[in-house]
Structures are given as C-alpha cells and as structure tokens.
C-alpha cells in the first residue's frame, strides 16, 4: 500500500521512511493537511496526519470522495478530528496510543529550569559580552512544591524528576496513580494545588471538562511568583486571561510548548510575516514567558515509537485488527 504522510518534519522523514520501507511505500510531505491542501491526498487509501491537521467534517468528506479510508494520526491527541462524522462516513481512524513519556516530561523540566534560572536571557546577554547577573536571580526548586495536573505516564515521569529535586508533590487527576503515591504525592483539589504550588505542570488531555482549565479565576489562585508549564494542549489555558495575569505583574514564569491557536503557526517559518495573532504576539513580549513550537515530544526515541506505531496501524487496518490505537474500527 502507498501511504501519504502529511505534516512531516524534516528530521522525522528518514525515520518514517525507514519504518515503512519493508512493507509499504510512503510519500512524505511537510505540508499539513487542511481544506486548502486536500488535493494532495486524492487517491490515497491511507493518510497519516500530524496533530495540526484540520480534520473537520468538510475535510473528512472530501477525503472520502478522494478515496481515503484510513486516517492514522501520529500523535496521542485527536481533538482535531471530528470522530463522530468520521464514523458516519465509514472511515477507519487510528492514533498513537503511547510513546516515550520521558520526552515530554524532560522537556517540561527544561522549560521550568530555563525560566527559573533565566537561561535564555543570560545566554542572550553573554553573546553581547554582557556578563552581569542583574535580573537573573532564581530559586532552588529543592524544598518547594510541584503541582502536577494530570498524573498519567507523562505526569508521573514529571513527578519523578521533581522528587529527584527534593520537591513536595501535589497532584490532581480523576484517578490516583499508585506510582505517584509511592513517591509521596498528595492528591488535593485543584484550587488548593494552585494556591500552594511553586511550579505547576499540565499533563491532562483536552476535553470539554478541561478546556480553559486555567482561566481567569484559577490563574488568580496562583502564587505571584509561581512558574506554570504547559506541554499538554494549548487550550488547557485561557491565553487571553494569561496575558491579563502577566500584565498585572504576576507569575514568576510561563513555559508554553503548546498554544490554543497554534494551528497554521507552529511548525511554520513566520519570520517574514506580520504576526496577526495579537494574543501570541503579546505573550512573546514578556521576558518571563518562554514559548516553543510543540517540540516536547521531538526526540529520536519518541519519534521512532510514533512512526513504528503508525506503520502498525496501517498493518492492523489491512488485517482488520482492533488495537489500543484504534479510534474507529474498520467497517465490516
């Protein structure tokens, strides 16, 4: 079978091609699949998409008209896919159920450490031969409190690192992680976690119940010098409310690897264009905000797991198998 893979990063391409080579042909495109790029998918029974693909009802209908029967997304998240409509159309949809949790957890800590110790500002200064320490005062994480919102595989990995720093652990989730409990984590109500934590990291999926989980009211609960890191989904935080919080001179730092309106922006070179997203533009003006372009997952280890699962999803589709990666099974 020939598979079309869209939204493929340059470093991802050789890994993807090597994984598919023994059994299937794959055509890799950097272009993200949207309504504007749909003609590229015509004639492909199987299409592999990135998390930034826009797979709403009109796009799904056009894919079916073009002959697509399988969508296998190279991510764990799938809130960009209209699953109900895909099922009505008879599409098979799969995702990557899991990959290295350490990739994301370690990157969340990279953001936290860079913010706390003002690493980006310090590096920028020394490039200009300015070796002053003014404005670079950080804090020990040891002895302070880490609030982990979502204690699944990634959240648990983040908590383990926090424990290594000697931090007190608070957790919030719909279910308790035995691993986190063994590390001494105390599960508390979300508002208490926000009030008491010096470092907060978000690791919950995006659902109606978690949309804008940190809105104006809850952002107001945070300590004035708290550091917030989001490597989960952009819409877990109300970005406009976050801007207002920062403008009020609150928060020690904010690390965002995801952003609510990142589609069409992240993964692209926008350096020669006018930034039309006022909220993102304002966030980037704050010296205590660090924004990266959805790269937390981007390690060789994680990407190899992702592409291996993607190839397996194609094999499972052809064999009619249902696995933990299956979102909508193949029609009989």
Automatic annotation (TrEMBL):
Q: Which SUPFAM superfamilies match?
A: Formate/glycerate dehydrogenase catalytic domain-like, NAD(P)-binding Rossmann-fold domains
What name does the UniProt record give this protein?
Putative D-lactate dehydrogenase
Q: Which InterPro entries match?
A: D-isomer_2_OHA_DH_cat_dom, D-isomer_DH_CS, D-isomer_DH_CS1, D-isomer_DH_NAD-bd, D-LDH-like, NAD(P)-bd_dom_sf
The UniProt entry's sequence similarity note says: Belongs to the D-isomer specific 2-hydroxyacid dehydrogenase family.
Give the residue range of the signal peptide.
Answer: none
The residues covered by the D-isomer specific 2-hydroxyacid dehydrogenase catalytic domain are 7-322
Keywords (alphabetical) are: NAD, Oxidoreductase
Q: Name one Pfam family in it.
A: 2-Hacid_dh_C
- PANTHER family reported for this sequence: 2-HYDROXYACID DEHYDROGENASE HOMOLOG 1-RELATED
């Amino acid at each position: 079978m020939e598979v079309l893979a869209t939204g493929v990063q340059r470093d991802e391409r050789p890994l993807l091609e090597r994984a598919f080579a023994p059994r299937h042909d794959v055509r890799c495109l950097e272009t993200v699949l949207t309504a504007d790029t749909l003609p590229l998918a015509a004639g492909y029974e199987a299409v592999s998409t990135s998390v930034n693909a826009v797979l709403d009802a009109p796009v799904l209908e056009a894919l079916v008209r073009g002959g697509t029967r399988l969508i296998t997304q190279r991510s764990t998240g799938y809130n960009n896919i209209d699953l109900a409509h895909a099922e009505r159309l008879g599409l098979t949809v799969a995702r990557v159920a899991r990959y290295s949790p350490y990739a994301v957890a370690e990157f969340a800590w990279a953001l936290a450490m860079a913010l706390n110790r003002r690493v980006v500002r310090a590096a920028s200064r020394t490039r200009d031969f300015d070796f002053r320490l003014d404005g670079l005062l950080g804090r020990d994480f040891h002895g302070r409190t880490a609030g982990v919102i979502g204690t699944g595989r990634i959240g648990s990995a983040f908590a383990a690192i926090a424990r290594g720093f000697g931090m007190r652990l608070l957790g919030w989730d719909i279910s308790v992680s035995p691993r986190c409990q063994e590390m001494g984590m105390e599960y508390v109500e979300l508002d208490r976690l926000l009030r008491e934590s010096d470092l907060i990291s978000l690791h919950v999926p995006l659902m109606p119940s978690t949309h804008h989980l940190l809105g104006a009211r809850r952002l107001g609960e945070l300590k004035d010098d708290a550091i917030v890191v989001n490597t989960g989904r952009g819409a877990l935080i109300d970005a406009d409310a976050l801007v207002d919080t920062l403008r009020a001179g609150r928060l020690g730092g904010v690390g965002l690897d995801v952003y609510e309106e990142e589609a069409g922006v992240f993964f692209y070179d926008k350096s020669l264009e006018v930034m039309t997203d006022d909220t993102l533009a304002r966030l980037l003006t704050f010296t205590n905000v660090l924004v990266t372009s959805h790269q937390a997952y981007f390690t060789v280890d994680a990407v190899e797991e992702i592409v291996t699962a993607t190839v397996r999803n194609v094999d499972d589709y052809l064999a009619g198998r249902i696995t933990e990666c299956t979102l909508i099974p193949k029609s009989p």
